[in-house]
Amino acid sequence: MSASTPRAVVVDDSHFMRTMLSDMLENGGVTVVDTAADGAEAVEAVLDHEPDVVTMDLQMPEVDGLEAVERIMAERPTPILMLSAHTADGADVTFEALEKGAVDFFTKPGGEVSTRMSSKEEQLVRKVKAVAGADVSGGRSSRPGGRSRSTSTTAAATDYEEGATVVIASSTGGPTVVERVVAGLPRAADLRIIVVQHMPDAFTGRFADRLDAASEYDVREAEDGARIGGGEALVAPGGKHLVVAGAGGGRLRTKLTEDPPEHGVRPAADVTMRSAAETVDGPLVGVVLTGMGADGAEGVQAIADAGGHVIAQDEASSAVFGMPKRAIELGCVDDVLSGDDVPDGVLDATKLEVNA
Length: 356
Hints:
By secondary structure, this protein is an alpha/beta fold. It has twelve helices and 15 strands.
């Protein structure tokens, strides 16, 4: 695959959408080698053409998008971008698709579809190209296990520094990795966790619910003025920056802003990490996981400058090695770890030196 001209299969049960998506991708330098009207046709097209990327509709007759993802990942693993409805129900099904192996998703606009979709053409093309470069060869970790660490960790809370804060940045390919990381952190560590995952507003609430169910932490989507203490976690809501506005009494106070996007995204991890570096009064860990672009690099640099510990996901386990690579290039990263090893890295960074 040429980095600039990936080959794509477009899957949608609407002829209009197939045509429009194909035109948008072709205009953006993506070669559409075939289209499919349902999941069964999609599997055939992937086997016939061996594309670099598939855009996959979720709701289709006969064989739907979920089943098609499962079949493709079993028969010929291929990077898949889901096209999802911008609704809570759409979010639930989309997360299922990500668990089955899809790399990322793009929300379909409502209302006047042709007008609003055209306005998102550049964003779609950029995301398709990023997903086309994702590694789905099997080097990445398995799906989340749910409370995986709680049965093996017996450490007492006194083994960890008090008031430690962890800020996690993630984008393309990130939701399942974030879920494993948070699930791998024991409640005994008493961490304060903030997650900034590039994701639209209809999805971040559902994402917080999933993290809450998968981990020992009390996880919720952040609201303006939200406070968290040890054993709690916040997810930055789609469409707003999350700022750490104050710290005291073992708790963090946050605020939400609609300041301009950074790196083309809101929430941006850089905003949250910079504010955490300025405000947090205890041990601070910055984590940059898989994703395209450079968000998080400047933020972890600020954390490092403030004396915090920085972890980046390694290339082998990253779907898209953009954000971690940029952070590593800045020279502020303490540990480069696989996605599955990030929880241990966080715990090592927050354990007390009992033999010092």
